[in-house]
Amino acid sequence: xxxxxxxxxxxxxxxxxxxxxxxxxxxxxxxxxxxxxxxxxxxxxxxxxxxxxxxxxxxxxxxxxxxxxxxxxxxxxxxxxxxxxxxxxxxxxxxxxxxxxxxxxxxxxxxxxxxxxxxxxxxxxxxxxxxxxxxxxxxxxxxxxxxxxxxxxxxxxxxxxxxxxxxxxxxxxxxxxxxxxxxxxxxxxxxxxxxxxxxxxxxxxxxxxxxxxxxxxxxxxxxxxxxxxxxxxxxxxxxxxxxxxxxxxxxxxxxxxxxxxxxxxxxxxxxxxxxxxxxxxxxxxxxxxxxxxxxxxxxxxxxx
Length: 304
Fold this sequence. Notes:
Elements: H1 2-43, H2 53-100, H3 106-121, H4 128-141, H5 147-160, E1 171-173, E2 194-198, E3 202-204, E4 211-214, H6 219-228, E5 232-236, E6 239-241, E7 245-253, E8 256-259, E9 264-272, E10 275-278, H7 282-293, E11 296-301
Parallel strand pairs: 5-7, 6-8, 7-9, 8-10
Antiparallel strand pairs: 1-3, 2-5, 4-7, 9-11
Helix pairs in contact: 2-3, 2-4, 3-5, 4-5, 4-7, 5-7
C-alpha cells in the first residue's frame, strides 16, 4: 500500500522539475536572442552624421555675411570718428570760449584743457588769439580757482608754438675779444639748455647786446657782457629757472621753463615751443599773462 501511494508523488515532482527546467531554458534562449540583437547593433557601422550640403552652404553664407557686416561696421565707425573729429575741430574754438567765460568753475577749466589736448593730438590749430584770451581768463581766475592754473599754463605753452624771433640787431664797429658768460639757474637733475651765439668782427651796440646774466652779477662782468656779447643768443632744450636772472635779447626754444616768483628781469625774451612749470604766485600769473599776450616778453619782478 505504501508503494502504491509514494510512486505518484515521485512522478509529480519529476514532472514539476522538468517544467521548471524548460522554463529556465526558454528564458535563457530569450536572453541570448536579446544579447544577440544588442551585439548586432553594436557591430553595425556608425551612421554617417555629416551635415547636409544645403546646411553647410547656409552656414557659410551666414558666416560670410557676418564678416562683411563687421567689416562694414568698422569702416562706418572709422568714418564717423573722422567726422566727429572734423566737427570738433570746427566747434573747439567756440567751446573753449564758452568754458573760458566761466573760469571759476573747475569743470570748465578741465574741459577747456581737454579740448586743447584734443586739438594738439589731432594736429588741429586753434587761433592764437582765442588761446590768448581764454588762457588769460583762466590765469586771472587761478587765484580763486587753483584748478584753472594748469589750464592757463598749458594755454601759454600752446601759444608759444606760434612765436618767432624777428629781432633786428643794430651793429657797431668794435673788435671782439674775450668771451661772454652765460648764466643758468639750473634745475636739479636736469641738463641746462645748450647755447648758440653768433659772433663776428663787429658787435652789437651796448643796448643791443644779448645777455644771460645772474641778477646782481658783478658790474665788471656785466660790462664784459656789454662789450663782448653776441649778435644773437639762442638757448635750446633742457631746463632752467627764471628766478634771479637778467636775460636780454634771448630766445628760449624747446626749454622747460620754471619760475617761483623770485626777482628777475626779462627784456625782449622770446619763448618758442616751451613748457612752463610755474608756482601759482602773483608774479607768475603776471608773467604768464605776458606770455599769452605777445611773442616777445619784457617783464621784471623786483621783490620776492
